[in-house]
Amino acid sequence: MKATVTTGLLLVFVIGIFVLACTDTSTDPVNTGKLRIAFDNVVSTSDLKLGTATYQNAAGESFTITKFNYFISNIKLHKADGSVYVVPQDSSYFLIQEEKPASQTITLSSVPTGNYTGMTFTVGVDSARSLANISLRTGVLDPALNDGMYWDWNSGYIFMKIEGTSTVAPATQNNTFFYHIGGFGGGYNGKKTINNLRTITLAFTDSGANVQSNAVPSVRITTDAMKIFNGSTKLSIAQYPSVMFDDYSPNIANNYAQMFSYDRTLANP
Amino acid sequence: MIRSKNISPIRVGLLGSLLVFALAVGCQKANAPDPDPGPTDPGGGGIVYKPTQVTLRQPANFPAMVYDLSQNPLTVEGVALGKSLFYDAQLSRDTTVSCGFCHQQFAGFGHSDHALSHGIDSKFGTRNVPGLQNLGWDREFFWDGGVTSLDELPIAPIQNPVEMDLKFSEALSRVQKSPKYPPMFQAAFGSDTVTTARFLKAISQFLLTLVSADSRYDKYVRKEAGGDLSSDELAGLTLFQQKCATCHATDLFTDKSYRNNGLPVSSINDQGRYRITLNEADRLKFKVPSLRNVEKTFPYMHDGRFTTLEQVIDHYRTGVQDSPSLDPALKANGQLGISLTDIQRNQLVAFLKTLTDNTFISNRAFSPN
Asked: Which of residues 143-172 of A touch B (CB under 8 A)?
């Protein structure tokens, strides 16, 4: 008898876990609030300044940055109890552009209230959305109107684009360098193509982000563009002044997978 | 504490059912609203949105279509809009070149007598304009298959600096500002706002109607009136089935694969499919083109290097060059190419000309208004 009661209690607990674990976009009347995520683009320890500031990579090459864009998508928020809130697919694609300050802060609405302790996201646009009906790809996903973050000759989004100048870049390229990295592992038959999607998980290492109906916490993420040069691969501009859809690109994807770090959360800025 | 000896098989079963139930309860998804802002959009324009459905023809001798029409139901209004855009030179930077400039109906929607694509300012591309027909049966587009949706295809030629060289945003803006188009968008999609998706889907609708299935060969295969083939043409058909149909398969006359057919590499040094897949095995491979209306789509090959069908067949007889990615079908039994006598070559050419679809080439519905 005691065992039956224990089993019953255990079942209630297990059902509870499943219910919590699978909570997503359900329309249950749960309390919701908003969460902001702000991406602060930096280069090592300095703020990123397009065109004007000069930086130096580990290869000892001086350069400036004239463009820096990247896609953030498929955001999931974690709570301390292990539950996960998956941001609804249709509102989970963001293009962060250094030249558009407004794009650097994203606002998630209808987030169930509670304290979040971390997040997971994808850099890039997943294969399902890359191949989706064109009517579902609006805003930053509009393949023709997203500031050149799409390859119209090789259907697919450019996940990360950084461009700049350096005296070590070839004169034939006007001393500019280009890194346009994409590739979602496509190909409906035959060998899959390059997959430069990267998934990032960051812990909110302080007290976390407490979403309430009357409080909109702002999570600050630091994006260090220098990591694109000085990651697990030391990228030399002289050696690779232009990398787009080619075999070297996964090295750069591995580098950009390392460029994000959690800074802090402002409770109600 | 639960010990395993305390749990009977019935209880295990119950536990299992409850777990499944818990999963089902926990993982219920709310019905997402349909985010497709298509035909239900309210819009201005003062025109009643009441489009007339068009049923696309599925010829009896074709395989099943691959385009998902449920995502873009064809309507008379949508097709008319798409045709208007297809023939509109406003979609090129200097307003001199329309889609129809390079895709000429009388040439099977290829560019007659142009080896390489010819854009604005007399610029040239690196590849031969492919003929357009039966696009609903294609999954990938261009010689290298780089574009994976018909609905995205027009972005590339419109923006290509050596083709129409117009920023897509400018193309949409010109269309929105034109007095002609907003009412047409209203009629086709229920909104006079020009969006990327509506613009592209309208062009798709027109392109999808370009079904070519009424050549003499089609009538022969379907045993319809007008389907008589001469003895030379029938001999050519037999030869074709023996020696060509591995690649030019089905009544679409292509298996949609990418193959290296042994052409010597030209100075353009086009690596073909490799550019898209970065797979070494795909170097120098190009999509097997359909042979429908092939009599009209000269010049031939991805770079238009041959002007006659006889030259094409002669390439397969004597010109095939070996390389690591050469198609195995052209290296059977260690022998390069395809062996054909002069008479057989002529019979093959006679057969290929039965693939000309004059109904298609002269159909007024496909011509500029």
From this structure: 143-145, 150, 152-155
